Amino acid sequence: MEQYYSPWIECAGLDSLRAEQGKRLGDMVKRVYESVPFYRERLDGHGIDPESIKSVDDLSRLPFTYKKDLRDTYPYGMFAVPKERIRRIHATSGTTGKMTVVAYTRRDLDDWSEDTARALVAAGATKADYIHIAYGYGLFTGGLGMHYGAERLGAVAIPVSSGNTARQIDILRDFGSNILCCTPSYAMYIGEAMSEMGIGPDDISLRAGVFGAEAWSEEMRLEIQRMFGIKAYDIFGMAELIGPGVSFECSDQSGMHVNEDKYIPEVIDPKTGKPLPEGVQGELVFTCVRKEALPLIRYRTGDIATIWRENCACGRTLIKMSKLRGRTDDMLIIRGVNVFPSQVESVLLDLGLPPNYLLVVDRVGNMDTMEVQVEMTPEIFSGISTVGDLQSIQKKIEGALLSTLGVTTTVKLVEPKQIARSEGKAKRVQDNRKF
Ligand code: ADP
Ligand code: ZN
Question: Buried b / exposed e across 193-216, counting CB within 10 Å, b at 16+?
Fold first, then answer.
């Protein structure tokens, strides 16, 4: 039986949901107009009368907010409440440049705990569970975001934070962790270390994992599920909106339900800015309709996905978004072809190789080149006896990459353990091109 944390919202009828969204949107636009000089200027500049925003249909008339706007008003210029009302500060991990600072009121923190509690429940967590949190604790939203969701649910939070993989494994086993929360690449790392120590699924009590903060493929899901003997669920979020828990997977594992009572998603054509119909891939844009400290209007996430509404088998009516392809700024353009690191990951896993790789991009003359450094497993490595063996593995991977990516790459096989492991978000690309 599927459980819900907030059934009245997660399974709400569409009409009542839209009515509530429209009301919250109108209130929010009026509030930022009054309290954030940046928004007053931007709305005035677009000739928008805040009083005219009454329903979700008015959303597309509103101007976008960009990451650059947060950077230009760094650190506190976009906050919509006086300092006395702020209870916590976080910051983005700065994957794509200067970090941005985000803030929360007491109510924002409560809302966020509710978001992550919903995600944990959708992954099958109950009050009786030990929730092992191996996301980093600190300015990064992952650790504390999941932590308070676990406590809110009434479960036991184990705040391990990231790092010290041997200790993670001791804790998993000795404390009887039931649910693991971390980045998918760190889950792979822990799983790999576990099997090296001779510890298998039967030696631990894990049932499920809630993994997010970076893109991961279906193949990687299967691999993680196999390594730990668990169900692996995706969770999406970003500091600018709240942190993890903007959307989450349910038992159906076929897309993430958006907590759309708080964050309204749209998918737009990144070039024209026009909203795209359901099911068409484009850039995700979110509007916060409940946030107090930092409510963003039509925030351009740079993430690529599709959204659609369906009668999900889990019973939730919340709109769904697909797994992410990656972010627009992760996308490499190699000789005019768009390449996402996640595609390389899928190919490797399909071939039975672990997704330990690094893409080294360069330009020779006017030609982009991409070298894919692929780490061998100890088994494959010890089975290689001639140069011919090595070349045939290389050729096989190059062939598979060419047919998936549509662009020629050079594969370089490297010895086991040569590619750096990540305890947080993995770094997959080294771009040496000078633009
Ligand atoms: P930064 O932007 O500095 O990395 P955040 O830690 O807030 O800061 O990261 C948010 C970003 O992480 C999202 O915009 C998205 O690109 C990525 N992300 C978060 N969750 C997922 C997920 N489940 N799948 C893919 N990407 C994700
Ligand atoms: Zn569902």
Answer: ebeeeebebeebebbbbbbbbbbb
Beta pairing, strands 208-212 & 231-238: parallel
**Euclidean distance between the first and the last CA atom of the chain, given in angstroms as a whole number:** 54
pTM of the model: 0.93
CB atoms within 10 A of CB 153: 23
Residue 141 CA: which ligand is closest?
Answer: 1
**d(CA 118, ligand 2 centre) in Å:** 12
The bound ligand whose nearest atom lies closest to the alpha carbon of 135 is: 1
Collapse the DSSP code of 215 into the 3-class scheme (helix H, G, I; strand E, B; otherwise coil) and give the result: coil
Q: Could you tell me the two tokens for 376? A: 């061998």
Closest ligand to C-alpha of residue 93 is 1
Q: How far apart are CA 105 and CA 143, in angstroms?
A: 18
Pairing of strands 208-212, 179-182: parallel
Residue among 90, 99, 135, 214 whose CB has most ligand 1 atoms within 8 A, to mutate: 214
Residues with CB under 6 A from ligand 1: 92-96, 212-215, 234-239, 301, 303, 324, 327
Looking at the DSSP bridge assignments, the partners of residue 122 are none
CA-CA-CA-CA dihedral for 118, 124, 126, 128, to nearest 10: -150
List CB-based neighbours of ion ligand 2 within 5 Å. Answer: 250, 252, 312, 314, 316
Atom of ligand 1 nearest to the CA of 330: 16
pLDDT averaged over consecutive 10-residue blocks of the chain (435 residues)? 94 98 98 98 98 98 97 95 98 76 98 98 98 96 98 98 96 98 96 96 98 94 97 97 98 98 97 97 97 98 96 98 84 89 92 93 91 92 87 95 94 94 91 80
- Strand locations in 230-366 (E): 231-238, 243-249, 256-258, 263-268, 282-288, 299-305, 307-308, 320-321, 332-334, 337-339, 357-364
CB 237 within 8 A of CB 265: no
- How far apart CA 95 and CA 97 sit, in angstroms, is 6
Element (H, E) at 372: strand 367-375
State both tokens at 330: 């992760």
